[in-house]
Structure formats: C-alpha cells, structure tokens
C-alpha cells in the first residue's frame, strides 16, 4: 500500500466526538499517522506480522494504520471507554480482524504482566502539559518495558534533550526519525481561542535490542 492510499484510508477513521481535556485527547491527524506507520513499516520492518501495542490508542488511528499494513495483531490500550467504542466501530466499518482493545490505565499497568510481550509499541502519548506533567515519560517507560524490539512515539520538540537524557539513563538508543513536524491542534475545547495551533513535535524511535 502506498503512503497516499494509507492516508486516504485513515481519513475515514472517526475521531473523538467529545474529547476529554483531563485525558489530553487530541486526535493524531491522518497525515501524521500515515507517515508514522508507513515509515515504521517500510524503513524499519516493525509492522508486518508483528505483535504491536498502541498505548493511549484513543479512537485507533495508529492501530488501524498498522492493521492495514498487515500487523499480525495490533492491541490498543486506553482508559476511556467512549474512545474505545469509537475504535471498535472504526475497525468494524473497515472490516479489520487483526486489532483488539484493552481498557486500562496505561500508567498503572502491572509491569511484570506485559514485560517484553510485544514486538513493537507505537503511541502518541499525552504531551504532559497542564495537570498531566510527566505523563509522556510514564507512557514511554511503560512502552519500553512492553517492547521486545522498538518503541515509536511522538513528543514535543522542546522536550527532546530531556528525553535523550532519560533514554541514556534507561540504556536505550533514541533516534529522531522526523524532526519538528507540525502537529495541528484543532480547537477542541471551550478555552481554545484560535481555530488551530501548530505544535512542533519529533517522531522518535527507541531501540530495545
């Protein structure tokens, strides 16, 4: 499947109807999601026939992208039952059979239960703003525990040096696959004054082995 075709398919995926501010629910755009999954698949061969986890999966755009590129199974983890209901509806409409969902708090998963259970972990974690400070790093630490091979994640460019230091402390290799991507945050909440805001984010790969 070509990149444009994948992006076109992901444009059909329904996003949050009523996003929840306390969960930092912002949709990953079809363009960024397609570029992420396509690169993971074509450059690193970490999708096809792999067991993939999607942490904070929301309505499932990353999982669905992975499923479309022939992941063996992609399991989405999210705390929000409304988002997971939309995820399930999306996969049913697209007739995908290689996805599953688990409702849980990603930051409070039992570490031993999922250690090294997945080949690849993909995620667009909460950026850790407002009252969720540090949430991005909790997601990353959980992902690194779960993955056998690699973790792919989006993080604010401004946090790159901090994440590099953490990766070094945790003895994992970090590389920036794509730097300073424009992440378009649409006006989702009442306090948003502008129609949309661009935030610079890095698409990162963390190698376990």
From TrEMBL:
Domain Methyltransferase small positions: 43-135
Upper classification of the organism: Eukaryota, Metazoa, Chordata, Craniata, Vertebrata
One GO MF term attached to the UniProt entry: rRNA (adenine-N6-)-methyltransferase activity
Domain of life: Eukaryota
Family: Belongs to the methyltransferase superfamily. PrmA family.
PANTHER family attached to this UniProt entry: RRNA N6-ADENOSINE-METHYLTRANSFERASE METTL5
Protein name (Swiss-Prot/TrEMBL): Methyltransferase-like protein 5
């Amino acid at each position: 499947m070509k990149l444009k075709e994948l992006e076109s398919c992901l444009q059909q995926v329904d996003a949050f109807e009523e996003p929840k501010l306390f969960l930092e629910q912002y949709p990953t755009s079809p363009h960024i999601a397609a570029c992420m999954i396509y690169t993971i698949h074509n450059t690193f061969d970490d999708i096809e026939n792999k067991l993939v986890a999607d942490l904070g999966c929301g309505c499932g755009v990353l999982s669905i992208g992975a499923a479309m590129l022939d992941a063996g199974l992609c399991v989405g983890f999210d705390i929000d039952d409304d988002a997971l209901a939309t995820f399930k509806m999306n996969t049913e409409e697209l007739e995908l059979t290689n996805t599953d969902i688990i409702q849980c708090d990603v930051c409070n998963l039992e570490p031993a239960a999922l250690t090294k259970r997945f080949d690849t972990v993909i995620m667009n974690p909460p950026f850790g703003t407002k009252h969720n400070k540090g949430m991005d790093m909790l997601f990353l630490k959980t992902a690194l525990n779960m993955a056998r091979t690699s973790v792919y994640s989006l993080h604010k460019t401004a946090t790159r040096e901090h994440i590099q230091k953490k990766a070094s402390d945790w003895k994992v290799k970090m590389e920036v696959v794509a730097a300073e991507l424009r992440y378009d945050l649409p006006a989702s909440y009442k306090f948003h004054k502008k129609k949309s805001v661009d935030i610079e984010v890095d698409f990162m790969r963390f190698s376990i082995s």
